[in-house]
Amino acid sequence: MTNELEELNAEDRQVAAMLNALPRVDAPADFDHKVRGRIAARRQPSGPGWRIFVPAFAAVFLVALGAVLYLGVLSSADVTDVPPIAEASTPAPVSNRVPEPSVQLPEPTEVASTVNEDTPAPNDRVTERVASPQRRPERRPQTPEQISEGGSVDRAGSPVTSNPDRPVNSNVSVPDMRPPGFEGGGQVDSSEVLSLMGLKGNFQADGFLVSNAEASGAAARAGVRAGDVVESLDGKRIEPETRFASGSEVRTISVKRNGESMTLRINR
Amino acid sequence: MDKARNGGQTAAALSDHELAAAAAGGDEAAFGELMDRYRNPITNFLYRFLNDYEEAVDLAQETFVRLYFALDRYHAGYAFSTYLYRIASNLAISELRKRKRRRLFSLTGLFTDDASDTAEYQPADGRRLQDASFDDLQRSAAIAKAIATLPEKYRVPIILRDIEEMSYDEISQVLEIELGTTKSRINRARGMLREKLDKEVLGLK
Fold it and tell me: Which of A24, A33, A43 to mutate to test the interface with B (most CBs of B within 10 A)?
């Protein structure tokens, strides 16, 4: 090697010597350890399966996550959007409704079909009311159609006996809780309906435990008391998720009292 | 030789070829001895090529990992060191290309890479550099920087020649190029370095 250096001119030799004089670096102390670690790591997941499946699983997971999120957005638009609005307006409807003759709210056309399918006691009112969806509840008793509608209910053979002495009664029906301009929905949840009937309480496993039944409310007048567990309305089980078509009427309420189930008619 | 190995002689007495053959047969101690012999030269070579200690160590380790899995394909046609340096320089060159790509896509890299690429490594223990004067350190840094700016086809041979002290023949084998090409590249590299270093470093003398 030295004889090769001798062939160089003085300047090149200077450069070569300079490079040769550069301080040398050594490998760190854990060098061998790390090399063996890498070798072991590369030997373990032998086979191409590992390299293919990891991205494949990741991709499947992402797709699933996307689907869940997408569906979650859809269902939350359904469920979570409505209750806050309903809760916010709860006090007003309850206090308005009790003294008012009729608390039926109109609902738009597209709800009509769901009403008929969902409620066990569909009636003529539902379909008739569809004709004028924009009416406001305050005006309802004054309109002539309203009077004729009252008759139509009787003709429909409702099992609830109407009391002529109390023509104006809190006729419990599910209100349309949608704010102005809100297009979708047409359903309210069970807590809203129970609150409209003058019931306060909590949901539990077997139904809605009544802590207070407002004396002037429809439920109290039907005979529901504090301590009862409301099991169903018109045969439809009461759960927090149970939803009622707005505009439908509630005619019977099933409660469990001291372990005994009973069905009470709601007078109008 | 076979007799010596079977007789329990220490691995240190064996040639690279014998160690490689033993390691290919699953002898971990033989592989360890090969690492003992070459981990420092390979690390130093990569450090001078990349001018980045962390990356140099990383690639040196990778070199031995590649070696480990290629041992059964290794044959004694040429020097073992040649084979090892070829793995290392191929890794280094592809690392360099990766860096260039990164710099192409990284806006911040435009402002930071030059500085960090050429920053001289200061070994943590600094034993070798302890008695060096500040001027020496500065000069080393300037030389390292100059080497790092050479095109890769000149950088590899001149490091192998003037720093790792390989023969022209061995370098030709590492790079798989003609002997004449090797010599001319090394000469060209020295000329480039002389130009780069003339003012600042050679002028100090």
Answer: A24
